[in-house]
């Protein structure tokens, strides 16, 4: 049940990002659900490997390169799907930051007392 709720929260966060940023477009709520699932898979499967491979660059930039990695993962998910469009690299970076912020805020608002 918590997985489905997290999936819906991430889809709503993605719709909020698309509403605020004109360079990011989501065709429908179904597209947002599919994009949230793909983002979750990409972030859980591919991101740890990329973080490990780019660890020297991340250390040199004091962690700022992680924003680039998040943007690349966001852009990759958009390139894999038809109903989810990201206008460019910087749109992907700012969209990924907003997506993370909105997802965290919505998740914390929906959390019950014993889950905190």
Features:
single chain; 116 residues; mainly alpha; two-stranded antiparallel ribbon; 2 strands; 5% strand
Total tally of structural domains? 1
What strand line-up does the widest sheet have?
1-2
Outline the low-pLDDT stretches: none
Q: Percent of residues in beta strands?
A: 5-15%
Approximate helicity band: over 70%
Number of E-state strands: 2
Radius of gyration: 14 Å
Series of H and E elements: HEHHHHEH
Q: Give the overall average pLDDT.
A: 92
Class by alpha and beta content: mainly alpha
What is the count of helical runs? 6
- Multimerization status: single chain
Q: What is the approximate shape?
A: globular
- Mind summarizing the main beta sheet? 2 strands, antiparallel
Distance between the termini: 17 Å
Brief summary of the model shown:
With 116 residues, the protein is mainly alpha-helical. Helix content is 75%, strand content 5%. It has one domain.
Explain how this protein is built.
The chain is mainly α and 116 residues long. The chain has one domain. The protein has a two-stranded antiparallel ribbon. The mean pLDDT is 92.
Q: What layout of secondary structure does this protein have?
A:
Blueprint: H1 2-20, E1 24-26, H2 29-45, H3 47-53, H4 55-60, H5 65-80, E2 84-86, H6 89-110
Antiparallel strand pairs: 1-2
């Amino acid at each position: 049940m918590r997985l489905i709720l997290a999936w819906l929260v991430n889809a709503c966060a993605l719709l909020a990002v698309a509403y605020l940023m004109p360079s990011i477009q989501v065709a429908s709520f179904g597209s947002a659900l599919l994009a949230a699932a793909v983002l979750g898979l990409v972030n859980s499967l591919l991101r740890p490997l990329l973080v490990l491979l780019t660890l020297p660059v991340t250390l040199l930039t004091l962690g700022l390169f992680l924003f680039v990695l998040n943007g690349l993962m966001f852009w990759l998910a958009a390139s894999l799907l038809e109903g989810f469009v990201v206008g460019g690299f910087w749109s992907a970076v700012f969209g990924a930051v907003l997506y993370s912020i909105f997802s965290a805020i919505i998740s914390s608002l929906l959390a019950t007392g014993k889950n905190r």
